[in-house]
Amino acid sequence: MKYTLTLFIFIFSIRCGFTQETTYVIDYDLKKAFKQLPTSSTFPSSLFIQTGNSTLYQVKYGVTPEEKVEDPNNLPQGNVIVVEGSDAFYFRNEGDTTLIYDDHIIFKHFTVKDEPKFNWTLTKDSKKVLGYNCQKATANFRGRTYEAYFTTDLGIQGAPWKFHGLPGVILHVYSIDGVFEITATGIKTFNDIEPLENPLDTTKMITWNQYKKKYERKYYELMNMVVGSGTGDYDSMPKMQLELLVEDRN
Amino acid sequence: MKKINLILILLGIFTMNIYANNNPKIDTESLKFDTVETKKDINILNDDVFTVTCSATVSYEGVVVRTFTRTASAGTLREARTMACGRAQSAANNYIAGQGGTPPTPGGGHNE
Hints:
The complex is a heterodimer of chains A (250) and B (112). Chain A has 250 residues and is mostly beta strands. Chain A is built from two helices and 13 strands; from the N terminus they run αββββββββββββαβ. Chain A has a twelve-stranded mixed sheet with strand order 7-8-9-10-11-1-2-3-4-5-6-12, with helices on one face. Helix content of chain B is 38%, strand content 29%. In chain B, strands 1-2-3 form a three-stranded antiparallel sheet, covered by helices on one side. In chain B, a hairpin with a 5-residue loop joins β1 (36-44) and β2 (50-60). At the A-B interface, α1, β2, β4 and β13 of A face α1, β2 and β3 of B. Chain B: Keywords: Signal. Chain B: Residues 1-20 form the signal peptide. Chain A: This is GLPGLI family protein. Chain A: InterPro entries: GLPGLI.
């Protein structure tokens, strides 16, 4: 009896100890507008920032913005992270420069370990996003120039996708060439979410450089492949996705 | 005494289950294709031969993953265009089907 009671108290205390974190959930619309495509694509996404813990950014590729759960009274209790097969994740432990995320080369998915570095230049420009005062910052990152608006009003730090290193939360960020844009659509706080954990399979993790080399190999493989019967027939993949993946060979 | 033991054990298992169920897990990835598009470049060699280059682009999760470019020549512009774009579109559709997906209608899917 004594042993069972101790076991129960131990299990109960573990659970109680893990549930009292404050979690900020920032919803965004993530837009990709590549010039090769006739239309842009917008996907709902959410950034989970847990004070004193980790951040998790989730992009729901299988859900259109119209299908988003908008009713605040109808949220699942205990955990708002609803996971579907087509979701992509970006996970970072607090204070850690390493970001772990899911990416793909054509249709093959990889878990990538990356240390994206942003040398932000803070400007005096500002605007309001969702009622929060935001300051503008700019940075070049892997082939694109970005302008970001971040707020320090929330008292926390965090950013969607690979963005990192600003002293607040990014609520609006876009590449100046119009290809990539992430816009905050709502902010909520929860007190009953479990500690954020890395949902990705890290057993076969590759580094960003390994990912880039794999992509580059595939790119040249395809370029050297003879296809079709006529001249002018070829298959290709772009040198640049959201980031520059194939450097020009001199 | 035995009843209390059983209740406490069941409560413990129940608590552990709640904790396990609240952690996100990834399901099997399902392939989803956004769009297939054609682009046309027309090159008139002379009055009798029209050459058209046409590309069909496959995107996945909003990024371009592969472009199929095909060229065809014919006596009329319409014929050359039909051949080039038909072959490009067909290559893209075969590729998508080979990946286990269903080719989308141009401009369809969830694009804006």
